[in-house]
C-alpha cells in the first residue's frame, strides 16, 4: 500500500511539473510523399496528430488521430522515430513521432469535425512555405540526413 506521504509527494509533483504529450505521424504514400494537414484554428502545415488522452497509450492516440485528421487507418506497424521537447509552444510539452510507411495504412473516412481545413501530400524536400519549423526539422531528419535534435 502506498503511504500518505508518497501520495502527497506525487500530487505535489504533478501540480509542480504538469506535462502534456502529443503524437504525430509521418505518413508516406506510394510515391514517397508525406501527408500534411492544415488546422482551422492555427496557421501552418503540420504532420497529422494531436494530444494523447488521459490513460490512452501513445500508439492508440496515433491510430485515433491519423484516422480523425487524415483519413489514415493503420493496418501494419509504424516505427517510433523519437520523443521531442516542444517547450517553445507550451511549457513541458512533448511530441512522440512515428514513421508510417505506405504498406502500413489504408484510406478511411475522416472525422475531424471542422478541425482540419485542408490535407496535402507533399514531397518531403519541397514543403509548402507555411510548413511549421518542427515539421521541417523532423522531415529533414528523416529524409535528408538532417540533425536529430531533442527539440521539436
Please tell me about this protein's structure.
It is a single chain. By secondary structure, the chain is of the alpha+beta class. The chain has a single domain (19-143), classed as Nucleoside Triphosphate Pyrophosphohydrolase, CATH 3.90.79.10. It is built from three helices and nine strands; from the N terminus they run αββββαβββββα. The protein has helices at residues 4-16, 58-70, 133-143, and strands spanning 20-27, 34-39, 45-46, 49-51, 72-74, 79-85, 93-100, 105-107, 116-122. β2 and β3 form a beta hairpin. It is globular. The termini are far apart.
End-to-end Cα distance: 39 Å
- Identify the CATH architecture: Alpha-Beta Complex
| Total domain count | 1
Q: How do the strands of the widest beta sheet line up side by side?
A: 4-1-7-6
Structural class: alpha+beta
Strand content: 25-35%
Question: Low-confidence parts, pLDDT < 50 over ≥5 residues?
Answer: none
Helix content: 10-25%
CATH top level assignment: Alpha Beta
SS summary, helix count = 3
Largest sheet: 4 strands, mixed
Amino acid at each position: 500500500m502506498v503511504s500518505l506521504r508518497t501520495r502527497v509527494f506525487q500530487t505535489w509533483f504533478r501540480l509542480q511539473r504538469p506535462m502534456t504529450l502529443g503524437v504525430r505521424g509521418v505518413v508516406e504514400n506510394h510515391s514517397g510523399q508525406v501527408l500534411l494537414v492544415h488546422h482551422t484554428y492555427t496557421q501552418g502545415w503540420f504532420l497529422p496528430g494531436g494530444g494523447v488522452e488521459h490513460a490512452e497509450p501513445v500508439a492508440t492516440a496515433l491510430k485515433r488521430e491519423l484516422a480523425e485528421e487524415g483519413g489514415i487507418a493503420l493496418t501494419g506497424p509504424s516505427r517510433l522515430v523519437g520523443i521531442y521537447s516542444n517547450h517553445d509552444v507550451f511549457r513541458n510539452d512533448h511530441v512522440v513521432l512515428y514513421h508510417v510507411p505506405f504498406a502500413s495504412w489504408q484510406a478511411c473516412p475522416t472525422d475531424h469535425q471542422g478541425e482540419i481545413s485542408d490535407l496535402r501530400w507533399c514531397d518531403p524536400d519541397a514543403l509548402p512555405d507555411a510548413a511549421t519549423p518542427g515539421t521541417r526539422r523532423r522531415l529533414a531528419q528523416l529524409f535528408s540526413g538532417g540533425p536529430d535534435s531533442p527539440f521539436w
